[in-house]
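Hey, I'm writing a tutorial for new members on how sequence and structure tokens pair up, and I'd like a real worked example in the thread rather than a made-up one. If someone can provide the structure for the chain below, I'll link this post from the tutorial.
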Amino acid sequence: MCRIGGTGLLIVLISFACQPQSKPGTSQVESQLTIQKETQKAAGYTGRGMQKTETCSSAADHSYEVYIPDSEVSCEKLPLVVILSPHGDGKYALDYFKSAAISYPCILVASNLIKNNFPGYLNSLNTLILDAKSKFPVNDQLYLAGFSGGARMSLDYASQYSPDGLIVMGGLTSPEQLAKIHCPVISLVGMADFNFLESVQYLYNKPSASKLIIELTTHSHEWADPETISRAMAYLFLSGIRQGDCLSENELKTYCKAEFGRMLTLREQRDWIPAELLRQKMAMNTSFSREADFGSRPEFEKSYSDELILLAQSIKLELALREEYSRDLQQMNASWWQNEISTLDARIHSDNDRYRRFAYLRIKGYLGILCYSLTNASLQQNMLPEAERLLAVYRMVEPQNPDMLYFSALLAFREGREDESKIFLIEALEAGFDDMARFRKEFPESYVLSALPE
């Protein structure tokens, strides 16, 4: 398989060696094409415009979602985009990329097996890639995309193999690991995301050996919207159009014109940081910079620098409050927290400084993560009074969080409040709790059966 080194390359060489020899008068290439078409037919591939659940031939437990757009293109093969979800929910993740795949034709695959804390995910990822390449008409271009834990796994993969580009959301990595990644990395960074600080450091200290591109959004810790993802895909696909690619100079010109217009709009709105990051992104590639004027301007650079100072001030506030809240969560009672969270919510809605507003949103998200970690640890150690105290705060911070509802059910069960526990379990499932392995481990089968929908 192209672009996969080490063991992955060895597997491919072995697979070719084991293929039947071509018939007399038939070239080896023709024989391989025949085998590939037969494999695609066995996988249910009948042409463009399909979505299905597929299973890796060499790993029966590894299912994945496939989407091939019904697009009119001249090329026979398309780039492969592998999507990783932190919860292994391939169908959910796939939905964010479909419109991008229609506009910029590619084959999408999303794993239902690989998720947070999954052991051996690099091997499983290579298995998925090899399986998709054997069953569907993909070319030698490989891209990865992921959110949160899926972003981290994509980055780790790219530091050891050689994909053509990454789109990551809700998480980034260290300068040391970035230096090992030689393809473009587009980081879609939510300004309300509690992981914002992982990415914003690179606005002030740019990694010299990296092709990191940062685009700010207004999202919290979540997948970016389909339009933003589509722009990121366009950048990767159009950065170096080759002969035989599905995209043409017309798509490139249209994309550059749209991005130039978006840059002007951001400047008119005095949104200086996103505007400058967009300009820098487009100026990095000569294919784009020759289509529109993405050159720097001293007046805009000054506005950008001034905004970075304001952003840094909000980050200083955020770090101070994080430290205070980490300490307060160990000491203060529910009454104090009710007043504090009400004050925090008021600041989120009323502060005139947009950077401080986003900082307050990130602080609240950080509080939710802190509550999750400490409550989980308390329940694992069966420290029920401490878990109950933490849950009272967790409930104020994120009243509809599925993990909070699950923890409430577990606490009630251990304290003998079975009816209340079942109510919390049903609410947790309705809110999106999906760790069924943990559910079955920590509750008796009768609970599982009563809580699960028929």
